[in-house]
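Input record (one chain):
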Amino acid sequence: MNSFGQIYRLTTFGESHGPALGGVIDGMPAGVKIDMESLTRAMQRRRPGQSDIVTARNESDSVQLLSGIFEGITTGTPIGFIIPNADNRSADYEAMRHTFRPSHADFTYQMKYGMRDHRGGGRSSARETASRIVGGELAAQALRQFGISINAYTSQVGDIALDAPYTCLDFNAIDSNPVRCPDPLKAQEMERLIRAVKAKGDTIGGVVTCIVRGCPAGLASLFSTNSRPGWHRPCFQSMPQRDLTTEPALQVPQCEAQRLSTHSPKPQMEQSIHSQTTPEAFKGASPTARISISA
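The corresponding structure, as predicted from the sequence alone:
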């Protein structure tokens, strides 16, 4: 899938070793003020080559917005953008031309399409997620104008997991370390584990938790002028939850499972989506959604 979203839709294009990545965002409302500094910070968060525990590829990940924005304000028309590739050393992957890498999509791609791009995985590379950052950050900027905040952080690496509930965490500390963990002590443990595993020539999995606060019932009606049935009812009643978050998240390389809940997660329910949204949850303060993604 290269396009996802209904009311707000992102279509991405490009390959790991092509001239550029890019995308088109359709459905962004007119009149949203775009914070380019915030967009740059978001891109820098995922930029490769930041530390010795991430890929060594060195990309600036600078975004060129091509349309849909005038004098810093969205016009309501499609927003096109590109992200040039600079450090795509294709010759380094020549040995992969006839070798399938474990835990990558090389073999699956070959079996499905009868061919593959051996240069870093081509379209199946995690490099493609750079375009998703642009779409996600611009969506987050629009949502902030409705009082909706979104924070994501690493909550577990291997057997090292955060013990405190998210309500006790300082989200301002997320970017203070390479693993993006809001607990400084746990972050140090995670880094040591990653380096130890890397020294053995292996990798280790983890969990990313995303907290969405201030999300009201019926969010779809805030953006939609579509008269199709269901669009003006609360989104939890009219849209399957897998369409909201699961499919785009599970497309990210190495993502194994996702859990969605409005309260503390249940570890015994791996590879399932767990939600107990009730009418009572919408009385008073807006509910908080917790999404955990395992890799």
